[in-house]
Amino acid sequence: MLSTVAPPLSSEEQEQILQTIEMFEVITQANPQDCQSMDILKDAYQRVGKLPEALAITRKLADTYVDLGQYSAAMLEYEGILQKDAGNVEVLARLAEVEEKLQKTGQLKPPVEAAPPTLGIDLDFKAVVSGGGTLMATNATLRADGGAGKRLAFDQMAALADDGNEPLAKFLIQHRLASEEIVSSALERVHKKNKDLAPNVIAVSLIDEICRRGSIEVDTVLAGIVDRSKFAFIPLQYYDVDRAIVKMLPDTLTIGRLIVPFDVLSRTIMIATANPFDAVGKEAVQQLLDYHVQWHLAPPQAIVKVLNETYRLEK
Predict the structure, then answer these.
(1) Residue 161 and residue 282: Cα distance in Å, rounded?
(2) How would DSSP label each residue in 218-261?
(3) 271 exposed, middle or buried (CB, 10 Å; 0-12, 13-18, 19+)?
(4) What is the pTM of this model?
(5) CA–CA distance, 148 with 259 (Å, rounded to integer)
């Protein structure tokens, strides 16, 4: 929902947010039902004081949620608009329609009378990531008294646990984005390469290995994944990524799993991944960062380039 007060921005932050707006305007035009990108754009407009644009994209986001049957999310967005534009007759009518649909399905909850987020209380929260339709909980786990211990535990978990390549392989085969023979041989090779990575050696992407072995265009595979999974996409190669943001995560996750934070807007952090099926990596990120996390699929080589520049790994 729309926040009431935006903190002052430095000139550098202002420039970065304007760059984010420019990019996500293009993304939302190309993908009209990309709720995740619209949510990011809404927040960016708010941060630079573009209220009319923020209200317009919020209305579009709410209407899209209705089209997708996500009525609870739509209701929150319509209510957010009415906080700024209480006399908007069209929005009031749409809200009434949504409430009626929720009442019919027994999903309508009582009005929330609790204190708004502007009180600044440090609360845990949940966020719906609409691009993949997945409900994920983000808990405030990094604290001065225990953050280091939790970070170490999740470093170890991310290093030892499943990397999500097998679910990705099954998805590619199931949707005929690559042949079973090529996927199987690539998966075996990637497992061997990534099993015992030396320090500062970037993990190998299964998508890259499949494309190399099968002479397939990476863009074709990525487009196939996005079309079939509705996962949000980010052309990271055109994004100016701050090294400090990348290093908000340990290199076990960034270098070891090709997971890269690339932007922060208010309480939302945007993260690129080369494998949207890496459930363990995602869970580690959710537990390590006290942010609303927005996930994006990005070209593996774009992620590698950011990592090389961030950690100065290129010779």
Answers:
(1) 12
(2) HHHHHHHHHHHH---B--GGG----HHHHTTS-HHHHHHH-EEE
(3) buried
(4) 0.59
(5) 20
| 132-141: average pLDDT | 32
Strand partners, 129: 134
Question: Would you tell me how many other CB atoms lie within 10 Å of the CB of residue 84?
Answer: 16
DSSP state of 114: S
Residue with token string 């390549």: 165
The amino acid at residue 261 is P
> What does the H/E/C string look like for 183-204?
HHHHHHHHHHHHHCCCCCCCCC
User: How far is it, in rounded angstroms, from Cα 149 to Cα 288?
Assistant: 11
Q: pLDDT tens digits for 239-261?
A: 889 999 999 999 889 999 999 99
Tell me the Ramachandran region of residue 221: left when phi exceeds 0, alpha when psi lies from -120 to 50, beta otherwise. alpha
Q: Find the DSSP H helices in the chain.
A: 11-30, 35-47, 51-67, 71-84, 89-105, 147-160, 165-174, 180-195, 206-214, 218-229, 243-246, 251-257, 279-288, 300-311
Specify the higher pLDDT residue, 300 or 46. 300
User: Please, what is the Cα angle at 114 between 132 and 80, to 5 degrees?
Assistant: 50
For residue 113, what are its two tokens?
Answer: 């009378």
- CA 96 – CA 118 distance, rounded (Å): 26
pLDDT tens, residue by residue, 23-35: 888 888 888 888 8
Return the residue matching tokens 């170490």.
Answer: 152
Nearest to 300 by CA among 252, 244, 235, 238: 235
Count Cβ atoms within 10 A of the Cβ of residue 176 and give its class: 0-12 exposed, 13-18 middle, 19 or more buried.
exposed
CB atoms within 10 A of CB 14: 14
The backbone region for 38, taken as left when phi is positive above 0, alpha when psi lies in -120 to 50, beta otherwise, is alpha
